[in-house]
Task: inverse folding
């Protein structure tokens, strides 16, 4: 029975997405005590007019998954030096209602991937900025960026051991925070 429940958010809808492959690889090395559910970001375009108590069902499910988790792991590609629109759209849905977002104070680990040697660092920085604005509990420390991602995936799974252990070290820091006593009610 898992003691820690995480939500994995891949910032790409592509069938053979390296971002999702990275999350699948991470799932494969997690101990039995940690479970990660990988979300699909096929959500409607954010429109504040639609963001009422009867928000679209897919949005409610996405928010509920985050709410019932102990933390989120977001793996993003870089699109034109930023995060993909689908990811920003999903974070905008998750960020509301204002002041009551399911991401408020939720531990969040950002990971960027890229076929380029730059590893998506600009998307990584932009993702953290959005998470801070919400505000999620952004995990600091060494930025987990994975370069040359295309050569580290086999059959839709990240298999590169240095990348997996780099990401796991950050994940370990995040999981270590779960269950800490609250200082303010
Ligand atoms: C890219 N790609 C890309 N890569 C990068 O390192 N920096 C960038 O600015 C961009 N820009 C960009 C824009 C658009 C519109 C696309 C489609 C792609 C390449 C990108 O990193 C690569 O396609 C990834 O494999 C996409 O992630 P998934 O779908 O594999 O998860």
Result:
């Amino acid at each position: 029975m898992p003691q820690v429940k995480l939500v994995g958010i891949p910032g790409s809808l592509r069938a053979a997405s390296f971002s999702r492959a990275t999350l699948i690889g991470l799932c494969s090395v997690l101990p039995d005590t940690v479970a990660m559910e990988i979300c699909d970001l096929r959500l409607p375009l954010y429109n504040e007019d639609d963001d009422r108590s009867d928000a679209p069902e897919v949005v409610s499910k996405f928010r509920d998954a985050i709410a019932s988790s102990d933390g989120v792991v977001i793996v993003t590609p870089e699109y034109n030096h930023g995060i993909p629109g689908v990811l920003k759209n999903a974070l905008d849905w998750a960020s509301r209602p204002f002041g009551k977002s399911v991401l408020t104070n939720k531990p969040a680990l950002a990971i960027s991937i890229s076929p380029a040697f730059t590893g998506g660092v600009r998307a990584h920085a932009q993702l953290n900025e959005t998470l801070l604005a919400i505000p999620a509990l952004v995990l600091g420390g060494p930025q987990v960026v994975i370069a040359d991602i295309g050569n580290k995936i086999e059959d839709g799974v990240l298999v590169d051991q240095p990348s997996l252990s780099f990401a796991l070290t950050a994940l370990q820091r995040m999981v270590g925070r779960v269950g800490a006593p609250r200082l303010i009610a």
User: Anything to note?
Assistant: The first helix runs from residue 18 to 29. Residues 12, 14, 17-19, 77-81, 114-116, 118, 120 surround FNR (CB under 6 Å).
